[in-house]
Amino acid sequence: MSLKSHATIIDDIQSLLGSNTTDFTDAILTLRLAEALPDFSRFSPFKGRETLYTTEDSKELDLSHLENLLWVDALEYRIDKDEREWREFTEHYHNNLSMEIDFYPVDEDSGIDTDEALDTSETGVDCDADATTAIPVGTVIRIDNELMYVTATGTTLTVVRGYSNTTGAAHTTDANIMIPEKAYLYCAEVHRVPVVADIAGAATAAYTAGVVTINVDGLTTTGTIEAGTTFTITGDGTGTHYRVLKDVVLSGGAGDFVFTPALAEAVANDDVVTFDNSTLTPRQETLLIDLVAARAAKSISTKFINEINVGGPGAWKDWVAWGEDKYREVLPKLEAEARRYQAVRKTWPRSY
């Protein structure tokens, strides 16, 4: 994982630009960094795995909610087999993916039904029997067309509603609780560099192994921890990197985090929770810093065209020349990075 925080990356860019924090403020460079990340990632992406859920009697997988997706390298379905089952697929312009299989996915009936009607936002689902064995914590269930993520089980399920790009809907009593099949997508994605300043906090209580929600405090007083951000916990000896499943807007430096996989080991109150700075490697950090500095230098040049009294008649040309030199230095390195990630894939245009 990354060695540098967002703030340190901005400092390094400013250092390359002569420590000129007047023209290259933190706010300006934060914008330039955000603009550069998608382009940089097309050369040197973050390689991740996304878990999608199949729809019964459909070979289509919805990709529209994967905001950082660049392309799909591989599809594994069905999962967790002794001999991994790789599938051919056709990607339809990031909207959906067609699995080239000669059968249709089938949801598993959990054997549990709802024991009450649900409105569109209720997070407690009463069951007609104890669901502890049939629906353990961390299971994704389907009721009608809505997916829900289970954070507590028993005779009442506690769930995250409208999970995986579905919509919270009303459901009748005695509705079947189904368990959809999973598919793994191995993807190239846009890198994430969180802006939140303080990336270490502490668990506010002791938590047992198997839970998928914890409360963390001691973070920056404002900001959002984005879905997809990963973290570790000092009390967890397995070293597992947990992935946040939905955006958390911090309040008073604290927030409730729903994550996957389930907690591997019990953790104690005040165990340190450390969020990863970004998805970049040290080599990628260096390339990104150079790229952003080059772009920032060229973009600032226009400011000096009509300001001869500030830096002389050639000031804007100096910034352009420096930026172009830096481009010529970094682009061959980015092209070399791109060759490491080339993949054969089938993508159909939107009109298909």
Give the SSE string: HHEEEEEEEEEEEEEEEEEEEEHHHE
Tally of individual helices: 5
Tally of strands: 21
Question: Structural class, from helix and strand content?
Answer: alpha+beta
Radius of gyration: 24 Å
- As laid out across the biggest beta sheet, the strand order is 13-14-19-17-16-20
What is the chains' assembly state?
single chain
Mean pLDDT: 89
Walkthrough of the structure:
There is one protein chain. With 352 residues, the chain is α+β, with helices and mostly antiparallel strands. Helix content is 22%, strand content 27%. The protein has 4 domains: 119 residues, no CATH class; 64 residues, no CATH class; 73 residues, Elongation Factor Tu (Ef-tu), domain 3; 83 residues, Translation factors (Elongation Factor Tu (Ef-tu), domain 3, Beta Barrel). It contains 5 helices and 21 strands. A 6-stranded antiparallel β-barrel has the order 13-14-19-17-16-20.
Offer a quick outline of the entry:
With 352 residues, this protein is an alpha+beta fold.
Keywords:
about 350 residues, about 20% helix, 6-stranded antiparallel barrel, Elongation Factor Tu (Ef-tu), domain 3, 4 domains, globular, 21 strands, 4-stranded mixed sheet, alpha+beta
Map the helices and strands:
Layout: H1 6-16, H2 26-43, E1 46-53, E2 60-62, E3 69-76, E4 89-92, E5 96-99, E6 108-113, E7 124-126, E8 140-143, E9 146-152, E10 156-160, E11 176-179, E12 182-189, E13 200-203, E14 213-217, E15 224-225, E16 230-233, E17 242-244, E18 248-249, E19 255-260, E20 272-275, H3 282-300, H4 308-311, H5 315-340, E21 347-348
Parallel strand pairs: 4-21
Antiparallel strand pairs: 1-12, 2-5, 3-12, 4-5, 6-11, 7-10, 8-9, 9-10, 13-14, 13-20, 14-19, 15-18, 16-17, 16-20, 17-19
